[in-house]
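Worked Example 4.2. Consider the chain below.
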Amino acid sequence: MWYEEAANFKSAEDFDQTNPTFVRQKHPLAKDVKIFYSYNPPKNPYDWINEWIDEIEGDNNKRVENGQEPRYLIDSSTYLDDTLGINSEQTLADIERFKQNDYDYYRWLYLGEVVGLGTNIYNMNLFNQIEDIPDDDYILGMYISADTGHEISATACSCYALTRKKRIVLLDTYYYSPAGKANKKSPKELSDNLHHFIQRMRDKYGNKIIKMTMDSAEGALRNQYYADYGTAWHPVNKLKKVDMIDRVQNLLAQGRFFYLPTENNLKYFISEHQKYQWDGDTLENDDPKVVKEDDHTCDNFQYVCLDNERDFGLRW
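Applying the procedure from the previous section yields the following structure tokens:
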């Protein structure tokens, strides 16, 4: 019996409930049922499967101390153990790129080390500033992503370009905060503002919009925009925060993210990512939270990576 991608289960209780179905009946040709679990360790040492493995190792150690055989075989392997030449030169080159760009991410993704989360979420050295789309490259299409708010939360809408050389380039950002304003913008006003921003991006870069992504919890503005302009935003299917952030970190570690130094990109997008942090009080559990303050461009970056991970080369 084999659990592939075991870390994707919710907890070890899933195994406890499933295993008896397959092992309860004695088979005439087998002494017992061998159960295998394979997975990639999550970064967070407090993720349930990392703690579960620690418990299993503890059980093995106690049995050895008591002169008993260990109950479990725990093994690990990485691409470095490939003696058959299965990994292609292209794969090895990609791995080396991760290693050079973000060594901790490489340790986790390719060496299977539980590297921890830290407090600061992003390595800002991986946010590459460029003045314009390079002459040896061109835009294939543009992607719009918005994290929206009305009464107390800001609206941040960014335009990202995918280029022929697989660069992801942040072109510009629209940002509106209702904080401190007596008369806050209505959904109709925000709809018009977003449309004008998107049209400005179309006019400036002359490329089609591949997809427009918005927070799935935001229904009013999506409906308003459709009523005004006949265009439907795609509601992103959000995951746990740590999993959405992982998509962004994957892109950054590949060295493929770039941004233009527009006023709003610098004032909001870069500034918010520099301050983006885990909530230290939540790190010691399997669903850590971020500090929910000035994180609106951070959210829209996560949305665009999650909603377009195949286009962006983050999923195969």
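The longest helix spans residues 187-205. The chain has two domains: 2-75, 124-307. Compare this with Example 4.1 before moving on.
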